[in-house]
Amino acid sequence: MNNLKVFGRIQVAKRSYSPLPVDPLLRFKAISQTQKAPRVLITGSLGQLGRGLNSVYKYMYGSECVVMSDIVRLPANATDVSDYNYLDILNQGSIEEIVVNKNIDTIVHFSALLSAVGETNVPLALQVNCRGVENILQVAAKHKLKVFIPSTIGAFGPTTPRENTPDLTVQCPTTIYGVSKVYAERLGEYFNHRFGVDFRSMRFPGIISATKPGGGTTDYAIQIFYDALQKGKHTCYLRPDTRLPMMYDTDCMASIIQLLSAESESLKRRTYNVTGFSFTPEEIADAIRRVMPGFEIDYDICPTRQAIADSWPKSLDDSEARKDWGWNPEYGLEETVQVMFALLRREEEKPTKIVSTA
Ligand code: NAD
Prior knowledge:
By secondary structure, the protein is an alpha/beta fold. About 40% of the residues lie in helices and about 15% in strands.
């Protein structure tokens, strides 16, 4: 009993937690010392990735460097957010107004409908994921901005080689999310060579963070931690052997900062694969059991999400990103499990929610 921490109703072995690294953000500090502070607009900034990136930028350059935007109201606990604006990315005039009024030089365009949500509302996915990207790129061309628009493993499809998928390969996705992300990749690269827009993109795997996910096929890999701590059990919507590539949040933030900081001449392409590690539901459940021995998992397969997962790569080849701009992830599965439990425990113990990366 001495060795157990009571977490909600669940007992978790105390010794199984590593402390968080002394300063997990140190690598960001190193970059900020060599680069001038940007003026960054983040769209869709209240989603899974936006607030983490805001915190990283603020840590690197102070609170003046980020302008956050989205179409939803700020949650009451958003004490980390300073300059927040309503911005519907379907309104090109409003994007331009913020860019001019706030003297923006870089846009990180996060607004999107993710894979599972996109399938439930195709017209809206087309609007947000395609018209939104067009608006962003046109404003970027007019005001000579640097633009980061994330792509995804969802931009591949069932005819893509699924093991160690390279940067250049067949891209015939079967979801509206994937189709719209291929469009974003192609349109961004077109604006780069036709109008000189400094467009940069990465195909992210599923991102694991201590924030609620936004309706993707890899969401289970976050929900499993909340369920582990609240119920000691998770019901997974994917088959136990479904292998997908994933990445921990801090590595995701690092990849964005690194790619945006890279010299243009070092980029041999405008869209890169990046990845952390791959696992199946069965394997992450085993990793959780090494921290929480009583953890249980069962399966209630969602045919839509399973079909999407079955059409995606199992692992990505990110050697080009490593070679061209020094991509080097730090978190594997074990580290991710440790840090997720540590963060969620901290969240439970504090009155306000921790949204940042670690
Ligand atoms: P999310 O769904 O959590 O957040 C998206 C945000 O976009 C939401 O806050 C939503 O309010 C906003 N939005 C929707 N319609 C909008 C509109 N008309 N105008 C302005 N904002 C609008 O997404 P996320 O997980 O933070 O993902 C961010 C980006 O990263 C997306 O482009 C996504 O495709 C990409 N990505 C994410 C993952 C992941 O695992 N989270 C993996 C691969 C790629």
